[in-house]
Every structure is written in structure tokens, then in C-alpha cells.
Amino acid sequence: MVVNYERLFSARSKSLKSSEIRELLKLTQSPGFISLAGGLPSPQAFPVDIIHECIEKVFKTDIHNALQYGTTEGLPQLRNVLAQRMRDKKNIDCELHDILITSGAQQALSFVAFNLLDPGDTYITSAPTYLGALQAFHAYQGNCECIPMNDEGIDIDSLRRNLKRLHRTGISPKFLYAVATFQNPSGESISLEHRKELIEIASEYDFLIVEDDPYGELVFEGEPIFPSIKSLDTKGRVIYIGTFSKVLAPGFRLAWVIASEEIINKFALTKQSSDLCSNMFVQYVAYEYIKGGYLDIQIQHIKQLYRHKRDVMIKALEKYFPEGAKWTVPGGGMFLWVTLPKNVNTRLMLKRAIAKKVAYVVGDSFYPDSSNYNSMRLNFSYSDDDIIIEGIKRLAEAIKEEMATPYDKDEYVGGV
Ligand code: PMP
Ligand code: G9A
Questions:
Q1: What confidence score (pLDDT) does residue 411 get?
Q2: Cα(167) to centroid of ligand 2, in Å?
Q3: By CB neighbour count within 10 A (0-12 exposed, 13-18 middle, 19+ buried), where does 100 fall?
Q4: What is the pLDDT of residues 90-139, one digit of tens each?
Q5: Do residues 241 and 36 touch, judged by C-beta distance below 8 A?
Q6: What is the CATH number of the domain that holds 224?
Q7: How far is the C-alpha of 126 from the C-alpha of 105, rounded, in Å?
Q8: Residue 146 and residue 101 share a domain
Q9: Phi/psi zone of residue 227: left (φ > 0), alpha (ψ -120 to 50 degrees), beta?
Q10: In this predicted model, what pLDDT tens digit does every residue of 70-85 receive, in sequence order?
């Protein structure tokens, strides 16, 4: 008998959507392809020799424990040094027991959704927002309420208006999701005033704030610009998520959550049923790495490298992109956001770009309601300088060709 998968798959499984970033990653790994798409760190920046040394240390000191199962919450000495680091760098008042290690920030986002969203529950996010978070929240059938961004990161007036409207209809959002510093995808940050207001609003309407912070330390000029939202939280309303992916190596698949005891306990239960514990071997390696004082040196190094790459990309954009294109100049992180003239639909143009062996992420995929059609996200951290320049040249050609091509108006999702 032929298996009838449609009958067997759960409603939840049937509703899963794929991530455009993950799909593009398969394509962009082919030879000669230039990817300005995925948020990959520069492979040249991986501190391979030091990681090698740390691995040797683990072999000499703790190898039997490193190869063993560990506790679900994570390696205590790693949580300890992370707590220290979070106190020093982020002013977050936390101890070892406030921290849970996860297999990447993506797993933490999935735990947020699993524990806070029943099907049809509402959460809030800015638009645009990180599409991997949308994917995680969608998997648990959350309803998204989108708030536009402005030059202070999130339009607080619109947030208040929408919360009032939701309240009138009896809807209480469970949480607000924010990449508050050097946001993925826009590169923008939420101002200090708005961070404070978010905490007040969360308290007034009784929801949690999920602060996803992979890029907070990648600041190109001076010191980190704003305190983390978590550092302003005295009531346990903020779930903070940090990750090693952008500052050390995404292949480690190692991240951490700082939250109230209630949340940490729930996440630990979720992790027990999900993967028991994160990879012990890399937790030991990460511990040696931080204990050796290498993380600060590495962050200093990649900040300079990524600032340089941002400048290389901006120069190339200025030189090759047509009149009417605009872009953000982020003060940190890995991405910039390009808005093209209104007669270019970046989703339709992607085919043309792929034919020229260059990829970007279509802007509308960061909008839960796909309400934007003429923007794109470009990553500047991954490629070497000459590849960035060549990639921008190819993209500029694609844009100019697209602008010169008569189009079928009905094909445009956003209208022109
Ligand atoms: N959150 C944001 C905002 C991200 O940009 C990413 C990765 N691009 C993640 C979470 C997932 O990171 P990780 O590799 O730690 O799972
Ligand atoms: O490869 C991934 O899925 C992580 C990167 C996310 C991004 O490009 O935003």
C-alpha cells in the first residue's frame, strides 16, 4: 500500500514554510556564484588556530566529560563565564542559573514559540524583521501584528495605537520580538528612549519582550550604542537571546538565553524533549575560548573587518547602482537594506540576478504580510572585497535591465 503522507502529517507539519535564506544557501554554494544573501560571517575571520589550541586544551583536561552527555541547561562553567560577560558588557544582572545554553539562537526562538504561542495567539514584531523568527513563530501558528519601523527603530505611536485596537477586540499579544541593535535585515537600532518605552508598554499590556541580539557587539565606531533592553528590565519581562554564531562560528551551533526562572525552567523542559542538551564538546571549546580572553580580541578584529567591508560595498553601490536606488549605512552588524526605484520588483528580478550568478534576499520575505516589493537585503560580511565589488556590479546590471524591461503590471504583488 502506498503511504498516504498527507493523512499522516499533523496540521502543524502541513503548515510549515521553508526559509528563503536556507533555500538560497543551497544555490549559492555552487562554483562562481556570488552570495550577498545569507548572513554568513567571513570564513577568513574564523580564529582557526586559537580554536585548535582550545580543542587541544579540552583534550588534555576534560575530554571524557566533553564526550559525555551533559545537563540540559548547559555546561556550568560556560554559563558562569557568559554570566560574567553579560554583566560586564551588557550590564545585565544575571548569574549562572539565569542562563540556558541552546543549539543556536534559532532553537531559542523555537522555544519561545513553543512555550508562548497557542494556535491563533498574537505576537508583535517590527516590519521588516528577521525571517527566521517569522518561520519559528509561524510553525506554532502565531498571528503576527506588524509595527512599522522608523528612524528610532520602531514606530512607538503605531505600536500604542495597535495595542489599543487589539485590546478593544479582546486580543492580548503574548510577546514583542525585537532585534534591537543593528537589526537583521535593516541594520537599524531601537533608540534608548524607545527601549525604555517598550519596557513600560510591555508592563502596561502585560506581554513579554524577546530581545534577539546576535549583532549588538558588532559596533563599527566607538562603544555599543545603547544598553540592551534586558539591562533595563527589573521585572523579568525580557527574554534575552545571545549567540556565538556571528562573533565566533555559526558551525558551533551554540547560543544562550537569559530569562526569569519560570522561562528558563520551561525552556529546559522543552530542550529535554528536543535534543537533551547542546553539543558538549563545543561547549567546552567555547568555554576555553572565553576563559582565554580570546572573544574580545576576535570581536575587535571582526568589527574592523566588517566596517571595511561595509565601506567597500557602499563605495561599489555608489559607483554602480542606478539613480533612484537608496541604501542604509549601518553602524554595525552584517547587513544593509536597499530600496530600489518603484518600477523594480526585487522578487521578480531575483531570477535575472541568479542567471548572472549573484544572490540577495528579497525584501518582502522580511515582511510578514509581504507588503514591500522593491527592496533587498545585502550581506557584506561574507565575501572578499573583490567579490563584493563584482557582486554589486552584476546586481547593478540586473537592476538596469529590469528597469528597461516593460513589465506586466499584474505580476507585481505590491503594485507600482
Ligand atoms: N536571530 C537573528 C536576528 C539572526 O540574524 C540569526 C542568524 N542569522 C539567528 C537568530 C539565528 O542564529 P543562530 O545561528 O544562533 O541560530
Ligand atoms: O543561514 C541561516 O539561516 C542563518 C542566517 C540568517 C540570515 O541570513 O539572516
A1: 53
A2: 34
A3: buried
A4: 999 999 999 999 999 999 999 999 999 999 999 999 999 999 999 999 99
A5: no
A6: 3.40.640.10
A7: 19
A8: yes
A9: beta
A10: 999 999 999 999 999 9
Q: Which amino acid is at 277?
A: C
Place of cell 566607538: 222
Q: 371 near 149, Cβ under 8 Å?
A: no
Dist. CA 93 → ligand 1 center (Å): 23
Q: Which domain holds residue 246?
A: 48-292
Give the CA angle between residues 398, 401, 407 to the nearest 5°. Answer: 115
| CATH for 341 | 3.90.1150.10
Residue 176: which of 151, 202, 137, 150 has the closest Cα? 202
Spans of the chain below 70 pLDDT:
407-416
Pocket (CB within 6 angstroms of ligand 1): 39, 104-106, 130, 132, 179, 184, 212, 214, 243, 245, 250, 255
Assigned domain for 199 exists: yes
Mutation choice for ligand 1 from 243, 253, 275, CB with most ligand atoms inside 8 A: 243
71 shares its domain with 137: yes
